[in-house]
Automatic annotation (TrEMBL), chain A:
Similarity-based family: Belongs to the binding-protein-dependent transport system permease family.
Source organism: Streptomyces fuscichromogenes
SUPFAM superfamilies documented for this protein: MetI-like
One term of GO molecular function: transmembrane transporter activity
Residue ranges of domain ABC transmembrane type-1 in the record: 20-208
Top-level division of the source organism's lineage: Bacteria
PANTHER family, per database record: L-CYSTINE TRANSPORT SYSTEM PERMEASE PROTEIN TCYL, MEMBRANE COMPONENT OF AMINO ACID ABC TRANSPORTER
Transmembrane segments annotated in the record for this chain: 24-44, 56-78, 84-103, 190-211
Keyword set, alphabetical order: Amino-acid transport, Cell membrane, Membrane, Transmembrane, Transmembrane helix, Transport
Cellular component GO terms, alphabetical: ATP-binding cassette (ABC) transporter complex
Record's protein name: ABC transporter permease
GO biological process per UniProt: amino acid transport
Automatic annotation (TrEMBL), chain B:
Protein's cellular compartments: Cell membrane
Membrane topology per record: Peripheral membrane protein
UniProt protein name: Arginine ABC transporter ATP-binding protein
Annotated SUPFAM superfamilies: P-loop containing nucleoside triphosphate hydrolases
Source organism (scientific name): Streptomyces fuscichromogenes
Xref: SMART domains: AAA (SM00382)
UniProt keyword terms in alphabetical order: Amino-acid transport, ATP-binding, Cell membrane, Membrane, Nucleotide-binding, Transport
Family, as annotated: Belongs to the ABC transporter superfamily.
Amino acid sequence: MSGFFQVPWSDYRPDLTAALGRTVSYTVVSFAGAVVLGLAVALLRLSRVWPARALAAVYTEVFKNVPLLAIIFLSYFGLASAGIRLDVFTAGCLSLVVFYAAYLSEIFRSAISGVHAGQTEAGEALGLGRAGIFGHVVLPQAVRLALAGTNTMLVDLLKSTSLLVTISAAELMSEGRLITSATFRALEVYLVISAVYFVLCYPLSQLLLLLERKVRAGVPLSPWRRRRIRAARALLAAEPAAGPGAGTDRKEAAV
Amino acid sequence: MTEPATTTAGTRTTSPSPADAVVRIRGLRKAFDGRTVLDDVNLEVARGSIVSVIGQSGGGKTTLMRCVNLLESPDAGTVEVAGEVVHQDGRRVCRDLPRLRRTVGMVFQRFNLFPHLTAVENVVLAQRTAGVPEQEALERAVTLLRRVGVAHRALAQPEQLSGGEQQRVAIARALALRPEVLLFDEPTSSLDPEATREVLSVMRELAADGMTMLLVTHELPFAREVSDHVVFVDRGRIVEAGSPRDVLDNPAQARTREFLAAYGSAS
Ligand SMILES: Nc1ncnc2c1ncn2[C@@H]1O[C@H](COP(=O)(O)OP(=O)(O)O)[C@@H](O)[C@H]1O
Ligand SMILES: [Mg+2]
């Protein structure tokens, strides 16, 4: 087996590290953009104004039914030929954003409409206001519903960054191609590159599964919720004003 | 004998002046898709009094409750809450809807607790958005949970709670903003007898504390026990209104008698 690894990997370590960093950058930037755009499209699709709904529907259907590679070529080569020159990073991220936003918008839309109508009503009855209801009642529950699908998309997006090899984006796959053309060791190189993707994706998806489980179990993840629950626990541990006579005080304070 | 139907529920009380009505509804009409579900409804809930609405399913009881905090917009008539006209002739007059809804607490048949928050957070949330400082809101939430007897479950998620516990948390949540009136829409209809007893006992305590309540219920013995007024609604109209003794024990209207017979109200 010692004969199998003939590529001088230690020489390539700095380049590979840089390529790995670029893959991660593409993933993080594109995913953040896709979540924002996907949420906007989902909200448009749930809008009461029909042109907004139609626009969002057209967007979703178009980008769900065109291959990602075609979108990458369009945004890098296509736009350039029309005089709009995007650098590789911008074109790459743009492609991933518009493509994944279409899928995410579907996930977000069904999650938002999956929140029971009684929840909005309870929020209204408590005088929360539109923004309060969306931010405190609908969105947190929609996030729970959307989490599994969204996580799948994140891992999928990470793997799809490899398609950017076609515009020489200098990420992992491109680096693999460079090493191959220098060493002519395609099997070895692409096995190693695949292993790097695996080492990146597997722990990520496991971590996201763990997150899903925690969120489903209602574990407070945000620091302000934790602080509130800690404070509540302290109050609960303290004796209630005490004594039967204090009962009336409490009631007075309560009404 | 259609007279009692249009008489406001408050007119038979001995003490409170009409000015002291927390809820006053006059000539209310509401239709869904052209089908009238409430017609010429008049109702008053005097401060500190308890008004129970009874009647068959589909009669418009829920819609009537939802017209008080304007979850539904009436098509005609006047809705007055805490001395302020909030809806008139099919137009919303009240500009600050959230403020109106903080004046009116509501408890739903299906609890509608926020499932992503613990019990105590459910009681805190609306207080915070209403501007109550964090510590004060928490203290009040804990006090209220103690009062309804679920403080030991304060850090549980709603799905971990029994139906009776959930509804008691929902009552605490509705009380958190110190509403002037509480609306209960069949609060025990999705509960087993044991949980029903728990919730009714909490409501009994609220009644004893002088809370103003408007309540839809099928628990006729409970309605008889706590109500100052009972209103029988049938097919969108108030058929009969008066003291529990009058409406439940000596109903003047044939429709009321039929309803009571069907619900087998003993005694
Ligand atoms: N949002 C709505 N849209 C259309 N019809 C409705 C709506 N809400 C209630 N209704 C109808 O109005 C009538 C009264 O309903 P409701 O007020 O829920 O009665 P109750 O609470 O007495 O059972 C029913 O026929 C019901 O189907
Ligand atoms: Mg109902």
